[in-house]
Structure to design on (151 residues):
């Protein structure tokens, strides 16, 4: 294993497993629809490589966009790395392709469930015995869940 690859990249492991929760919820929704008041707010990075969003929406939401999956959605299809969904914007039905890695948060307000997937790698320098050491701190900026594997 090269030094560039982390032996245990906890940030990646955490985000990947949290995304599995999102995938599972969307798979069940795709199969059975929504019931019992469930609905989702999904925030994602609009300019993420691989996302396919109509240009007028990218112009309107250049960094992040929130979609709501509740009453009017169609053709929800889940794949390994992304999902497709048809949603109505300004009276027109549009197909969106959203890469799972671009998701920043997933909320189901019907059960007060909130996942913040905006896990950030911050490099901090610390001095130890006269040497500069690079330390990576993984943090989840949610006040719902905080995971810091370096403590």
């Amino acid at each position: 294993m090269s030094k560039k690859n982390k032996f245990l990249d906890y940030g990646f492991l955490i985000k990947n497993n949290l995304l599995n929760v999102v995938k599972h919820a969307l798979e069940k929704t795709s199969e059975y629809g929504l019931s019992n008041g469930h609905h989702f707010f999904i925030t994602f990075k609009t300019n993420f490589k691989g996302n396919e969003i109509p240009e007028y929406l990218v112009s309107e939401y250049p960094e992040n966009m929130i979609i709501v999956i509740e009453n009017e959605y169609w053709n929800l299809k889940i794949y390994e790395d992304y999902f497709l969904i048809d949603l109505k914007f300004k009276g027109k039905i549009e197909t969106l392709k959203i890469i799972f890695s671009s998701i920043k948060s997933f909320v189901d307000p019907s059960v007060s469930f909130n996942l913040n997937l905006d896990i950030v790698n911050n490099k901090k320098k610390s001095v130890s015995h006269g040497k500069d050491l690079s330390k990576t701190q993984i943090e989840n900026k949610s006040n719902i869940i905080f995971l810091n594997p370096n403590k």
In short: Confidence is low (pLDDT under 50) at residues 122-146. The longest strand covers residues 119-128. The chain has one domain: 10-119. The first helix runs from residue 10 to 32.
